[in-house]
């Protein structure tokens, strides 16, 4: 399938401000099941753009501006071709079919911080919640991960949230609601408590029936590393496993590292009026 992605972000200011360098993560990651056919970025006002890769191999554009402006518009057009199956079969190493299993010494060294829980769990409430999904020992690894994925969808009501940042996992559990990035962060923290390597993913979602939340939009989900199978996508917002209709742009240890646009301005604190984001993901 081929997808056309149009993403436009507009920052509005009360007066002309000095625009500091902006870090853009907007071009999808090529892989065995996703190929970027074309991409372009347009900025108003114009900027000098430098391309680099971060520690995770994400493609990063840094835009440096001269002069001042009362509006910043960042527009991207991307065409990708995706080969991911809607019903994937994961070739997991025999030793990892059942949980618990042990990553190799090399895998543990490379996964590093992606194995470590990121939030305090005073009293063990979160750990108790996670371990309730382990109904037998040993148990089927993929079934366990799917149960956690679906369990989050059952426990957490999706809601659009415009505030910056990501809720802590206990906060999301207590509130019983969160955005896609909150639900992904909850899933990642859960699997790390069980010893899995997990990472955050940001990108785009295309929903073929246009019935689910945030269809055709920016989206956040998670991936878990399983020996031989590699990184497997889990989307607790939509109870999905596998990367079909998910178009990854960036991966990282946490959501804060993979925001599509980050940057600041030089001016008064109340100069910032607001931000508008428009995303369209369509089949071509």
From TrEMBL:
SUPFAM superfamilies found in the cross-reference section: Cysteine proteinases (SSF54001)
Domain Transglutaminase-like: 172-238
Pfam families: Bact_transglu_N, Transglut_core
Name listed for the protein in its UniProt record: Transglutaminase family protein
The organism of origin for this protein: Sphingobium agri
């Amino acid at each position: 399938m081929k997808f056309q992605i149009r993403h436009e972000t507009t920052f509005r200011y009360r007066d002309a401000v000095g625009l500091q360098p902006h870090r853009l993560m907007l071009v999808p990651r090529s892989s065995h099941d996703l190929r970027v056919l074309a991409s372009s970025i347009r900025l108003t006002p114009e900027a000098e753009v430098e391309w680099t890769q971060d520690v995770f191999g994400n493609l990063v554009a840094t835009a440096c501006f001269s002069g001042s402006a009362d509006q910043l518009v960042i527009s991207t057009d991307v065409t990708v071709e995706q080969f991911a199956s809607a019903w994937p079969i994961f070739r997991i190493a025999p030793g990892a079919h059942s949980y618990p299993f042990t990553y190799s010494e090399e895998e543990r060294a490379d996964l590093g911080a992606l194995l470590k829980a990121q939030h305090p769990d005073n009293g063990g409430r979160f750990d108790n919640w996670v371990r309730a999904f382990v109904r037998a020992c040993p148990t089927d690894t993929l079934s366990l991960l799917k149960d956690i994925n679906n369990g989050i969808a059952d426990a957490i009501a999706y809601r659009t949230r415009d505030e910056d940042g990501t809720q802590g996992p206990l906060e999301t559990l207590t509130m019983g609601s969160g955005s896609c990035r909150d639900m992904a962060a909850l899933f990642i923290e859960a699997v790390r408590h069980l010893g899995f390597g997990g990472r955050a993913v940001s990108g785009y979602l295309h929903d073929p029936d246009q019935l689910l939340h945030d269809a055709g939009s920016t989206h956040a989900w998670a991936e878990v590393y399983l020996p031989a199978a590699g990184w497997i996508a889990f989307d607790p917002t939509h109870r999905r496993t596998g990367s079909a209709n998910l178009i990854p742009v960036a991966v990282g240890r946490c959501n804060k590292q993979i925001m599509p646009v980050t940057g600041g301005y030089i001016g008064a604190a109340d100069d910032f009026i607001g931000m508008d984001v428009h995303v369209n993901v369509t089949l071509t």
